[in-house]
Amino acid sequence: MNSIAAQLTRNVDFGLSGAFAEQANRFAASQFSWLQELGPVFERLKASFYPSNLRGISGLRLEEVEQVVMVDGIALYSVPRASIAEALVRAEGASKRREILGRRSQAISADCRAGLSGCKSDTIAPYVRNALAALNALGDGHVEAAQALAASVLDAAVNSYFGTQRHHYTPDKRGNRTNAAYDEFGAHEYIAFAPIWQAWQKFFPDEGLPVPYTFSRNATAHTVSTKQFTKRNAVQCLMIITGILVFLDEHLTEAKE
């Protein structure tokens, strides 16, 4: 805003007549005042662009968010808390981000529990109840059970939301290899659902593919490998389902009101 106003002021001095220059200066001053009034409006628009846990991150760019949610498949919608979300965004690469999932698993689990417990919609109540059960299993040290249940909840929620169109949003066995359908989403919907692109990457044991180390819905469903069933992956899955359920709850609540 300041740079635009300064440019308006500079543009009046081109050797014009005194009367015209005076009028131009008055115009520039009025524009500066108008831009100052718009500043807070733009700040509010910028804030509403991101979910609440991302709004306090200074200089946050959508490209940074996209790297985490779409490329690395780590959720950022409503969870985790701002400090952990910023650490994930600023981390140098996927391996560093996964270290954070393991190191901050208790805090992230607490954030997921708070987010899920705040959901009020009856429509998603069964998903919330089972996601909380998965969190309980994780808290009791039953990592495999937590991941298996969380993955089932995630699968059910995604299929319920997208219905027969789900194959447009996941690289499934039908051969879909483009995430172009996500371009239709608004910012909140994109951030909430983008992690499923990685979660549904193709994996079938009979095709000889290696079991992925990162969370995979298909590997969770079709293997019992210690490479797949880990605390980090259980946390990653719970973050995804929490973000989606919170997003759905917000929109269902708004529609009801």
Ordered list of secondary-structure elements with their pairings:
Elements (H helix, E strand, L loop, with lengths): L1 H9 L7 H32 L12 H10 L10 H9 L3 H10 L1 H13 L7 H15 L3 H20 L24 H7 L2 H4 L17 H6 L8 H26 L1
Helix pairs in contact: 1-2, 5-12, 6-7, 6-12, 7-8, 7-12, 8-12, 9-12
Description:
The protein is mainly alpha-helical and 257 residues long. It has two domains: 2-49, no CATH class; 61-256, no CATH class. Helix content is 63%, strand content 0%. The chain has twelve helices and no strands. Helix 1 (2-10) packs antiparallel against helix 2, helix 5 crosses helix 12 (231-256) and helix 7 (125-139) runs antiparallel to helix 12 (231-256). The longest helix is centred in the N-terminal third of the chain and has 32 residues, at 18-49. It is globular. Residues 1-16 have low confidence and may be disordered.
Q: Keywords, please?
A:
257 residues, mainly alpha, globular
